[in-house]
Amino acid sequence: MKVLSKISIGLITLVFVFTQYSCEKDKNSNGIGVIGGFDYSNGPGDNAQDYVSDNVFKTLKVQILHMPNAKPTNSSVNSLKEFLEDYLDKNSIEVFLTEIPSSQKATYSIDDIREIEKNNRSIFNSGSTFSASMLFVDGDYSENTGNGKVLGVAYNNTSMAVFEKTLQDNAGGLFQPSLSSVETTVMHHEFGHLMGLVNNGAPLTSAHHDSDHGAHCTNTDCLMYYAVEGSDFIANLVGSNIPSLDAQCQADLNGLR
């Protein structure tokens, strides 16, 4: 590896932490239970086919719940919609932004996040429409360690959260990736887990599951790789070139159609 500046090392650490820790899951929790006529208490990937195929659900509605100081950029929201349109078989995909009150917390636990979703989510499955919730909070993750900070979590089969304050603290500055680039990467990655990647609802069509690191891809260039390293990747993020799903992950999704 090349000798890197302190700034580059910091950026690499940020992205490494995201891919290593962003996919915290709680598949054994009772979660929120039945709300709006739909039980979404299972884990990420349990409804992968419902997202990817149009066999049952023809449309998708994504509700982005955000606290006042944690609103995602328009660019990242538009990119999420394009990402989903590329990989999901739906007649239409709509993304709605809903501002919610801040909980005035410095850190948020998974239980906190579930409670906030329970109290604020208003879009659920209805007829041939499937749904997803993405919560943007104005604090850090309560389980952060000295090794780095979590940027996002997929914690239920239709639920994700992004720690927007953590993103804002580590993006958008000199020699840092843009905030929209980091937001987009986190949003795509976490939604990838709801879509069953990797080997977590979308059956493998080839050997690319990095079983040592959970539901992640072995391809270092893939959006679903567990740990992204190197100055080239950082340069790509700074240039707003978001990582994409590799051919193997795309083939797994095709198996759900």
Explain the layout of strands and helices:
Layout (H helix, E strand, L loop, with lengths): L5 H16 L12 E2 L2 E2 L8 H5 L6 E8 L7 H14 L4 E8 L7 E2 L1 H11 L8 E9 L2 E2 L10 E5 L2 E5 H7 L8 H16 L36 H8 L8 H8 L3
Parallel strand pairs: 3-4, 3-6, 5-7, 6-9
Antiparallel strand pairs: 1-2, 8-9
Helix pairs in contact: 3-6
Could you describe the 3D structure shown?
The protein has 257 residues and is an alpha/beta fold. The strands form three sheets. It has a five-stranded mixed β-sheet, with helices on both faces. The protein has a two-stranded antiparallel ribbon with strand order 1-2. A two-stranded parallel sheet has the order 5-7. It has helices spanning 6-21, 48-52, 74-87, 110-120, 164-170, 179-194, 231-238, 247-254, and strands at residues 34-35, 38-39, 59-66, 92-99, 107-108, 129-137, 140-141, 152-156, 159-163. The model is unreliable at 1-22, 24-33 and 228-235 (pLDDT under 50).
Structural features:
single chain, 257 residues, alpha/beta, 5-stranded mixed sheet, two-stranded antiparallel ribbon, 8 helices, 33% helix, 17% strand, globular, disordered N terminus
Quantity of strands, as a count: 9
Radius of gyration: 17 Å
Helix/strand-derived category reads: alpha/beta
Task: Compute the separation of the termini in Å.
Answer: 41 Å
Low-confidence stretches: 1-22, 24-33, 228-235
Largest beta sheet, briefly? Answer: 5 strands, mixed
The average pLDDT value, as a whole number, equals: 83
Order of helices and strands: HEEHEHEEHEEEEHHHH
Q: Helical content, roughly? A: 25-40%
Shape: globular
Strand coverage percent: 15-25%
Helix count equals 8
